[in-house]
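fold-stage: in
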Amino acid sequence: MKKACILATCAVTALTLAGCGMATTIAPNYQSTNPDLMRIGGEAPGQKEPEIINMGSYCLQVTNRWKTDGKTPDGQTIWTMDSLRKVIPCR
C-alpha cells in the first residue's frame, strides 16, 4: 500500500511538471524595437568616438561598443551594445 501511494504521488508530480513545461514554453523573438541597442545579422555596426558630457561639477565620458552576443537558430549574429561610463575632469 505504501509503495502504491509513493508511486502514485511520483506519477502525478511527473505529469504536472511535464504539463507545466509544455504550457509555458515561449517562442524566441529576435527583434528589437530599438535598433540602437540590438541588431540581428550583418556586419558589426560602426563604432562611435567616446562622447564627453558636462554634468556641471564633473564630466562623463560615454563609450558605446558593439559586441556579438550569440547567434539566432538560423545562424545570424546577434549584436548588442555595451555603454561604458567613466567620470573624468572637465577641460
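fold-stage: in (second)
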Amino acid sequence: MDDGAVKVNVIIDDKVFYKFSIFESFYRKRGYLSPLIFALILSVSAIICFILDGALLGIVLLIIGLGLPAFRIQKIFSAIKTQIRVLDLVNPKTVYSLCLTEAPDGIEVTNHGDGDDPLRYEWSNIHMVYRVDGCIYLYVLTDKAYLLPDGQAVEGSDALWQILTKMIPHDKIHDRLKK
C-alpha cells in the first residue's frame, strides 16, 4: 500500500443500507416532493369544497390527497426492506474494498465475490461526497455510490475524511455533520 493511502474493507449490513436508501430516496432524489405537492393540491381543493358546501367531494379529495401519497411513501419503505432481504443484508458481509491514494486515479475498488480486476476512478471525476451520521457516501457517478461506514477504514475515519476533503473539490463535498 502506498504511503498515505487509506484502505477500507466495507462491511454492509441492513442498518447501513436502510439509512443509505432513505437518504438516496428522500434527500438526493427528493422522493418526498411529488407526494407532498399532490397532497397539498388535493387538500387545498378539499378545503375549497368544504367552504363551498361540497362536503362529500371535499372528503373524497382529502382521502385521495392524503391516502395516495401515504401509500407511495409506504411502497418506497417496503421496496427498501425487500431489497435488504434479497441482498441478504441481515447477515453483514464484506462487499468491496477501497484503497484511496493521492494519485490522480487514486480510487481503487475491489469487489468481493467476483473475479474481475479492480475498478479505478479519478478524483477529478467524482460526482459527490456526502458525510452523514455513521457513514460517508462516495458517489463516483451520479447513480453509483460506495458506502463507507464509520470505523471501517484501517487508518481510521479521520484519515478517510482527510483524504476525501483533500482530493475532491469542496463544491462536491457535503458534510451533513457540520453544526
